[in-house]
Specification:
single chain; about 280 residues; alpha/beta; Spore Coat Polysaccharide Biosynthesis Protein SpsA, Chain A; 2 domains; 10 helices; 9 strands; about 20% strand; globular; Nucleotide-diphossugar_trans; Glyco_trans_2-like; Glycosyltransferase family 2 protein; Glycosyltransf_2
């Protein structure tokens, strides 16, 4: 299967070389890899240039955006710029972070999933991060049927059906909800263990703490589902303040009349799906 990768990179000199090396080691090579150098002020571009010299699969796009590392909008805006450099001659498309080490057979397995399961629209493995003892341990704060935003692979049909990715916090949840709305499934493979070199959220701005709640508003969760989801998140993270931040973010978004990421019809489907999942876990 033919696939393309887009990698947004902002000041990734500490990790990018490992990520690109792991791409070169793939048993199934990508047809194209677009490296979006997004306003980097370190040695990111030098590393990109080195790898362009190593393989013709790599291309570079320099772009300037906000210097703030805000989750959601910055990375997806960069992704979209990279996507605009590509044609439609692919079977699946990958949005990849610049701080990962992939197993050598990662994309061969992803291709096998898409080829064998035409109803699968989004596929991926699981994140492993190093603990204080130096061991690589699973870090997957959401349900096992969720693919982390760091390495999302989309079939062409699914990507087109969901209308691409949303430039907002929550993009890597709303894509899966819209995939379900369009009758596509999410597939995760326990054997695909991806090493994440920088723990999630380390570079995020303090302003980001309210964005999760705002995202729940823009996904049309409604007050009750937002409260339940936020409570679950706070308990899982062992951070009671997360509940307060989420609800404050939700109320601020409602007051500001933030633009929704989904239509009314999609919102109805999303709420029904969320309630069904909540009831299933209670029974």
């Amino acid at each position: 299967m033919r696939y393309y990768i887009v990698i947004p990179a902002h000041n990734e000199e500490d990790f990018l070389k490992d990520t690109l090396t792991s791409i070169l080691r793939q048993s199934l090579q990508p047809a194209k890899v677009v490296l979006v150098n997004d306003n980097s002020t370190d040695g990111t571009e030098d590393i990109i240039d080195q790898f362009i010299g190593l393989s013709p699969i790599f291309t570079k796009l320099n772009t300037a955006s906000s210097a703030e590392h805000m989750p959601g909008s910055k990375v997806i805006n960069a992704f979209k710029k990279g996507l605009a450099q590509l044609d439609d001659h692919y079977d699946f498309l990958v949005k990849l972070d610049a701080d990962l080490i992939l197993p050598d057979n990662y994309f061969e397995k992803i291709a096998y999933i898409f080829k064998g399961h035409p109803n699968v629209g989004i596929a991926g493995g699981f994140v492993y991060e190093q603990n204080q003892q130096g061991n690589w341990v699973l870090n997957h704060p959401m349900n096992k049927n969720h693919v982390r935003g760091a390495f999302k692979a989309y079939s062409k049909g699914c990507f087109k059906a969901i209308g691409g990715l949303r430039s907002a916090m929550g993009w890597d949840t709303v894509d899966e909800l819209l995939a379900a709305y369009n009758d596509y499934e999410v597939y995760t493979d326990d054997y695909l263990k991806v090493k994440h070199l920088r723990p999630t959220g380390k570079a995020y701005n303090a302003k980001a703490k309210l964005l999760q709640g705002k995202a729940m508003y823009t996904m049309r969760y409604g007050w009750a589902i937002t409260l339940i989801a936020s409570l679950k998140m706070a308990l899982k993270q062992k951070k009671p303040i997360a509940l307060m931040d989420n609800m404050k973010g939700y109320l601020e978004a409602k007051k500001e009349k933030k633009e929704f990421l989904v239509s009314k019809e999609e919102g109805v489907f999303i709420r029904k799906l969320r309630w069904a999942n909540i009831k299933k876990k209670l029974l």
